[in-house]
Write a structure and sequence with these properties.
Shape: globular
Strand order of the largest sheet: 1-23-22-21-20
CATH class: Mainly Beta
Order of helices and strands: HEEEEEEEEEEEEEEEEEEEEEEEEEEH
CATH superfamily: TolB, C-terminal domain
Number of domains: 1
Radius of gyration: 20 Å
Number of strands: 26
Strand content: over 45%
Largest sheet: 5 strands, mixed
Bound molecules: calcium ion
Helix content: under 10%
Length: about 375
């Protein structure tokens, strides 16, 4: 992600500093922490996080993209998975406590799907591996909640793999999408056998500029990519369809969005279906109606509550499954750019979907 201060923020800081100096006629004082200006945040309705995960093992911008496994047998045992983009993969319980750390290298984005292999469920966890320039595949054992390798790394041919998401077709075939740091994307078919997996590249896709966030909607066979400085595009997710990008949301058309556009997530519930985007440049989250021509339903921020608020988010994930008393309408998980109270390495915040629905007056 780009940590370039938006022009609007610079203007606001400059105005604020001038105003103070004029009013008090005091000599200019260096701003505390002036070497890193406070993140810009949209003036929008706020929710608060229920709790936060343990911090990742590495400093500065290190946590990146979350994923959620819903335990169908006991939702309270569900697992949050998060990439630490300098070191590997962390898993956490819904209590935020670390379950496992896999020192697998620079895994950037992560996604999962539950697949049927020889009549049994296999929870496939995939990630983009920037060290080995590959797709990394793991499996999550539902009984032990432990994650382990499913396959050797799958080479991508990309110089610098970046974004990543999975797609499960109506026929039960698993596909992986990956972007790189340029403007390329590609799709692989993942063939699962007993306890292992292989992959075959099926299609190249092209975007105009750097894109990272991506998410596939299995229900409509559509994959979405967030081009960081431009907007969100959709492609048909089936590999025999034309690799034609359709613009669905443009930064230039919505003043409440601010580059970079980062993580994308899809909420499918009983009362509505939504595409959610991290608007990193103003530390907010925008909600679009999947069933209504991508109508903008509003934006929200995550303010300080039981734990510190959320700014400059990279990856996000959401599920609509009820996960117990804290998350009865589902769970929204986000990476937080600055884990404070107390200052610590970055982590992920857990938000109740019901709070978001109430704040935005979603049905
Ligand atoms: Ca970015
Ligand atoms: Ca993800
Ligand atoms: Ca924070
Ligand atoms: Ca990222
Ligand atoms: Ca904190």
């Amino acid at each position: 992600m780009n940590r370039i201060l938006p022009t609007a923020a610079l203007a606001l800081l400059t105005l604020g500093a001038c105003g103070d100096n004029t009013a008090t006629e005091a000599p200019a004082q260096p701003l505390a922490g002036a070497e890193e200006p406070a993140p810009v945040q949209l003036d929008a309705p706020a929710v608060t996080a229920v709790r936060e995960t343990d911090p990742v093992d590495t400093a500065e911008d290190a946590a990146d993209d979350p994923e959620i496994w819903v335990d169908p047998a006991d939702p309270s045992r569900s697992v949050v998975i998060g990439t630490a983009k300098k070191s590997g993969l962390f898993t956490y319980g819904l209590d935020g406590k670390q379950i496992q750390f896999l020192p697998e290298g620079r895994l950037n984005n992560v996604d999962l799907r539950t697949m049927t292999v020889n009549g049994a469920d296999t929870v496939v966890v995939g990630a983009s591996d920037r060290d080995k320039k590959a797709v990394a595949l793991f499996k999550l054992d539902a009984a032990t909640r432990q994650v382990s390798a499913l396959a050797e790394r799958i080479p991508t041919g990309f110089t610098d793999p970046y974004g990543f998401c999975l797609y499960k077709s109506a026929s039960g075939t698993l596909y992986a999408f990956m972007t790189d740091k340029e403007k390329n994307a590609a799709q692989w078919r993942i063939d699962l056998a007993d306890g292992t997996a292989t992959a075959a590249k099926v299609r190249d896709l092209t975007l105009a500029t750097q894109s990272e966030g991506c998410v596939a909607d299995d229900q409509t066979a559509t994959v979405y990519f967030a081009e960081e400085n431009v907007g969100i595009w959709s492609f048909p997710a089936e590999p025999d369809q034309p690799a034609t990008a359709t613009p669905i949301i443009k930064l230039a058309d919505n003043a409440r969005l601010a580059a970079d556009l980062e993580g994308l997530a899809i909420y499918r519930g009983m009362t509505g279906n939504y595409l959610i985007a991290s608007s990193q440049g103003n530390s907010s989250f925008a909600v679009f109606d999947l069933g209504g021509g991508y109508a903008y339903k509003g934006s929200f921020i995550i303010a300080k509550g039981a734990v510190d608020g959320v700014t400059e988010t990279d990856g996000i994930e959401v599920v609509s499954a009820p996960l117990g008393v804290d998350f009865p309408g589902g769970l929204f998980v986000v990476q937080d750019g600055h884990n404070t109270d107390p200052d610590a390495n970055q982590n992920f915040k857990l938000v109740s979907w019901d709070a978001i629905a109430k704040t935005l007056n979603l049905p």
